[in-house]
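Re-running Carboxyl-terminal protease to confirm reproducibility after the cluster update. Everything else is unchanged from the original entry.
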Amino acid sequence: MFKKRFSIPQMLGVFFLSLGVFSGGTYYLMKNWIGDPGALFQIVRTMHLIQEHYVGETNRKAIYDGALKGMVGVLNDPYSTYLDNQDFQALSTMTEGHFGGVGMVMGQKKDGQFVVVAPIEDTPAYKAGIKAGDILLKIDGEDLNGQNLNQVVKKIRGRDGSQVTLTLKRGSEEPRDIAVTRSDIKLKSVYSRMEDGGIGYIRITNFNEDTARDFGASLQDLRDKGMKALVLDLRDNPGGLLESGVGVARYLVPKGPIVSVTDKDGNTQTESSSLETVDFPLAVLVNHGTASAAEIVSGAIQDTGSGKLFGVKTYGKGVVQNIFLLSNKTAVKLTVARYYTPSGRSIDKVGITPDQAVEATDEEGSNQLQAAEEYLRQQLQQ
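Result of re-run:
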């Protein structure tokens, strides 16, 4: 049988042609993926130079982590961050519903200051008297200048039973040190009770995986007890899962849009309610600590007229983050979309102005609750 033979030059030609096609295809794909393959080569080259020539000790994992943190950090977005092994573990712990810490949600202002968005109810931070709006200056005596939000949160958290000293400033008051003992923070998010006159009260402290289900159960329990009107307390609620906020809103917003989420390419997804009508008067309590998913709920209620908002202007976080896995132990959290209330407004860095402004006259804001209940009584008399 005849067999065709190839010479060595021919085989080498085929080899280098194939290699060229592969390299060209790879370059084309990399260019479309990251924009500048040369920049990626510079990163690899820098890593090699450090390994080969730097006179001090090097930690390859720390260098990789530093490079990734730098990429995300240059976005100058306090909500976007690289999650290393420790950060990702903390996130996983949060998803499971408990973590070692003091129990307060932190944010970062444009000027770089770290602000308490809200203390979580019944946690060490809450019991220590830490309030939404307090400025965090130091942790265990260490100044926080030059640190990012993720680094600060990491320092606040720690082993159950360990102690951390927080230096906080409230308004024009002098800074003060507060020693707080960390505990296992369990995120129960829904509390309810029946007030006089058939007025139900539900407080949501944050939005986790169980919040919508627990809210529905609490609402039904109040109905069974003869509820005629409802106060929904979203004060100092830092938000949480968008899906959970939408789930709660479906009990309180009539048929139609709840929130629209628009990504960088202009693609919009609208979450809607199928509820025929809200068959009870509704009042919602908000304050400066009402943020994110809590603003989705309150914004939808205000825009659709299903209830009335009482308190002071909300925090103003109108963006959505997604978690992208890089490995089974690391990830990137990125702001991927903006959200809009049913009327089409963005509340990001603006907040929601309540229908009736009521400044709190005591730490509990009892006058705000009284104003909401008085409104509901008037509605029930009509």
